C-alpha cells in the first residue's frame, strides 16, 4: 500500500544555485541574488513514493554504537584543532581557498602523515600530472609507500580507483576539475559539480571513507559551484592567507563534528607547510626602543588569543582638503570611523592629515576589539609620544567615544601575561581574570584610555 503519494507540478523556472522557484524567467535569482542562474525547469511530472522494505530496524538511541563515529587524528595538530579532533569515518571535508594559498600542499602533507601511520591513502589529482605532485611530495618529504597517487579527470575512473584500492582516506584535488560522462557540460559547471560531489559523497558514506575535497573560490571569495555543495558536505574549511605572507589561517565555516570557532595557524615555506602552535610572536615587532604610533593588542581568532601589533603614521597632507587614509590588514571603514571619533570627541587634529594604519606580519584583524589599540596608535603618532613598553589595549570604541566590553577578556589577559606584558588598558568592568603581577587599567571612555596611556595632547 503506498505510504505517500504526491502530485506536484514543477514551476516554470528554477535557480541552479539555490533551487529558488518562480513561474517566470528573471535574469537574477530572487533568493541568492546570482545572475544568469535561472533556467527553465522540466515538464510537469507526477511522482509516487511507495514504502520499501526495512533493511535494519530502528533501535533505541542509547544502543547505537558510537565507536564508528570516533575521530581519528590526521597527524597535523592544527588541522585536527579545526576539525574537532580529526577525521570521522565517512566524513566529507571541503577545503576551499584562493589559488596558490597552499591547499594542495596541506592536504598532501595530511595524506603523507596518515600513510605514515599505516593507513592507505588515495590521492587523486585532476589539476596536475602525477609527476608534478610527486615532485611536490619529494620537496616536502611526503613520499610514503601507502600513499597512492592517480591523475584522473573522469568520475567513473575515480570511483573505479576507490573500489580497486579500498583506501582509508581519499583526497580529491579538485572537485571542480572532475567530470562525469553521464552529465552534459564541461567540468566545473553547476550540473557537473553537483553530480561529482554527490557521487563521491555517496561512495564515502557507503564505505565509511573519510574524504577531503579541494574547492576553488570565486572572485568575491565564496566557494565556486552550486550552493548545495556546501550543504552536502560535512565540513567546510576556508584556507586563507596573503600571497606575500607566509602565514596561513584555516577556519571551519561549517562542522558537523566539532566547533566552528577554532582557527589553525600554519607557515608556508619552500619545504612545505608547518603548523604554528604559538604564532603570536609573528605579529609583534622587535624594536629596541618604544616608537610613537605603535600599540599592541590581543585579538581572538576563534577561541585562540593572538597578540598583534598595530602601527600608525600621521603626517601633514600635501593637498589641503584631500587627506589620505591608507590601511593594511584592517577594515578601512572601521579606521575612518575611529578617526572621526578621535577628531570629534578628543579634538585630535587628524581630519586634514594623512593617516596610515597597518598590522605587523600581514595578519588581518576584523574584530571590533582592536578599535582601542587603533585609537591609541593613531593618537600616539599624532602627538609623537610612544606608549609605555609592555602595554596592551583592547576594547570596542563607540561613536559616542565610549569603550565597550568585548568577549574573552580573561583569555586575552592570560595570553598577554604569558608573553611578558605587565599592563593592560581594558573596558570598564573587565579587570577580572588578570594574571598575578599585571596592572589592569579600566577605561569607560576613549578619553580615559588616552589618559591611562599618558598621551594627553
UniProtKB/TrEMBL annotation:
A motif (RadA KNRFG motif) lies at residues 254-258. Keywords: ATP-binding, DNA damage, DNA repair, DNA-binding, Hydrolase, Metal-binding, Nucleotide-binding, Stress response, Zinc, Zinc-finger. Residues 68-217 form the RecA family profile domain. ATP binds at residues 97-104. It holds the Pfam family Zn_ribbon_LapB. Coiled coil: none annotated. Residues 354-457 are annotated as: Lon-protease-like. Plays a role in repairing double-strand DNA breaks, probably involving stabilizing or processing branched DNA or blocked replication forks. DNA-dependent ATPase involved in processing of recombination intermediates, plays a role in repairing DNA breaks. Stimulates the branch migration of RecA-mediated strand transfer reactions, allowing the 3' invading strand to extend heteroduplex DNA faster. Binds ssDNA in the presence of ADP but not other nucleotides, has ATPase activity that is stimulated by ssDNA and various branched DNA structures, but inhibited by SSB. Does not have RecA's homology-searching function. Belongs to the RecA family. RadA subfamily. The middle region has homology to RecA with ATPase motifs including the RadA KNRFG motif, while the C-terminus is homologous to Lon protease. This is DNA repair protein RadA. The lineage of its organism: Bacteria, Bacillati, Actinomycetota, Actinomycetes, Kineosporiales.
Amino acid at each position: 500500500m503506498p505510504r505517500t503519494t504526491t502530485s506536484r507540478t514543477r514551476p516554470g523556472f528554477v535557480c541552479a544555485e539555490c533551487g529558488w522557484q518562480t513561474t517566470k524567467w528573471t535574469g537574477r535569482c530572487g533568493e541568492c541574488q546570482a545572475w544568469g542562474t535561472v533556467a527553465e525547469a522540466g515538464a510537469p511530472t507526477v511522482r509516487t513514493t511507495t514504502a520499501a522494505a526495512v533493511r535494519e530496524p530502528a533501535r533505541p538511541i542509547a544502543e547505537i554504537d558510537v565507536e564508528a563515529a570516533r575521530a581519528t587524528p590526521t597527524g597535523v595538530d592544527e588541522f585536527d584543532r579545526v576539525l574537532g579532533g580529526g577525521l570521522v569515518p565517512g566524513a566529507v571535508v571541503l577545503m576551499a581557498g584562493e589559488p596558490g594559498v597552499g591547499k594542495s600542499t596541506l592536504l598532501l602533507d595530511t595524506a603523507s602523515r596518515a600513510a605514515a601511520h599505516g593507513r592507505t591513502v588515495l590521492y587523486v589529482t585532476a589539476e596536475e600530472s602525477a609527476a608534478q605532485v610527486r615532485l611536490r611530495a619529494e620537496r616536502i618529504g611526503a613520499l610514503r609507500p601507502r600513499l597512492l597517487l592517480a591523475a584522473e579527470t573522469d568520475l567513473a575512473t575515480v570511483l573505479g580507483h576507490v573500489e580497486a584500492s579500498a583506501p582509508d582516506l581519499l583526497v580529491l584535488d579538485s572537485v571542480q576539475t572532475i567530470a562525469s560522462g553521464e552529465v552534459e557540460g564541461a567540468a566545473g559547471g553547476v550540473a557537473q559539480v553537483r553530480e561529482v560531489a554527490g557521487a563521491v559523497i555517496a561512495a564515502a558514506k557507503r564505505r565509511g571513507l573519510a574524504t577531503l575535497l579541494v574547492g576553488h573560490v570565486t572572485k568575491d571569495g565564496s566557494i565556486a559551484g552550486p550552493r548545495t555543495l556546501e550543504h552536502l558536505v560535512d565540513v567546510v574549511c576556508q584556507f586563507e592567507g596573503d600571497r606575500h605572507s607566509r602565514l596561513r589561517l584555516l577556519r571551519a565555516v561549517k562542522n558537523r563534528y566539532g566547533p566552528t570557532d577554532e582557527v589553525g595557524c600554519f607557515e608556508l615555506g619552500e619545504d612545505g607547510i608547518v603548523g604554528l602552535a604559538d604564532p603570536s610572536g609573528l605579529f609583534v615587532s622587535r624594536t629596541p626602543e618604544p616608537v610613537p604610533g605603535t600599540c599592541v593588542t590581543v585579538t581572538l581568532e576563534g577561541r585562540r588569543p593572538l597578540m598583534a601589533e598595530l602601527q600608525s603614521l600621521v603626517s601633514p597632507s600635501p593637498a589641503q582638503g584631500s587627506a589620505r587614509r591608507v590601511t593594511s590588514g584592517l577594515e578601512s571603514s572601521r579606521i575612518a570611523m575611529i578617526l572621526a571619533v578621535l577628531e570629534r570627541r578628543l579634538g585630535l587634529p587628524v581630519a586634514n592629515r594623512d593617516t596610515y594604519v597597518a598590522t605587523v606580519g600581514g595578519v588581518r584583524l576584523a574584530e571590533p576589539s582592536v578599535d582601542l589599540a587603533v585609537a591609541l596608535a593613531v593618537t600616539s603618532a599624532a602627538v609623537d609620544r610612544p606608549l609605555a613598553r609592555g602595554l596592551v589595549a583592547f576594547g570596542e570604541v563607540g561613536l559616542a567615544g565610549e569603550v565597550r566590553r568585548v568577549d574573552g577578556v580573561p583569555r586575552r589577559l592570560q595570553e598577554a601575561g604569558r608573553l611578558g606584558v605587565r599592563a593592560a588598558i581594558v573596558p570598564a568592568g573587565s579587570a577580572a581574570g588578570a594574571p598575578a603581577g599585571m596592572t589592569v587599567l579600566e577605561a569607560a571612555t576613549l578619553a580615559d584610555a588616552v589618559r591611562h596611556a599618558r598621551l594627553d595632547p
